[in-house]
Amino acid sequence: MSVKLTVVYDNPTDPAAFEKHYEGVHKALAMKVPNLQRAEFAKVFPKEDGSATPAYRTADLYFADYATACSALASEAGQAAAGDAITLATGGVKFLLSDIDD
């Protein structure tokens, strides 16, 4: 069973500051989480009329199984990345740990 952590970042109060920190600091912290098999980082397209969507960015972190994911997220590096996500996400953030259908 593969597992992924999806992080949904809501629209930040200052998108330029968010992007600067996200690209310069946050992604590197996420990549230090132990036993990470792969990571995908994405920016949500705005609505066709140009208005903001309910989410701004997503990140998907993949792990071999539930126990590995929980251990990785409880590690010092996992806690640093999660703490930074909470601080960074001035518009709010959601963490979803999911079992991937094979």
Folded structure, characterized:
It is globular and about 40 Å long. The chain has three helices and four strands, in the order E-H-E-E-H-H-E. The protein has a domain at 13-37 and 67-89. It is α+β, with helices and mostly antiparallel strands and 102 residues long. It has helices at 15-31, 66-74, 76-88, and strands at 2-9, 38-43, 57-63, 93-100. Helix 1 runs antiparallel to helix 3 (76-88). It has a four-stranded antiparallel sheet. The longest helix has 17 residues, at 15-31. It is 38% helix and 28% strand.
Record the SSE blueprint.
Layout: E1 2-9, H1 15-31, E2 38-43, E3 57-63, H2 66-74, H3 76-88, E4 93-100
Antiparallel strand pairs: 1-3, 1-4, 2-3
Helix pairs in contact: 1-3
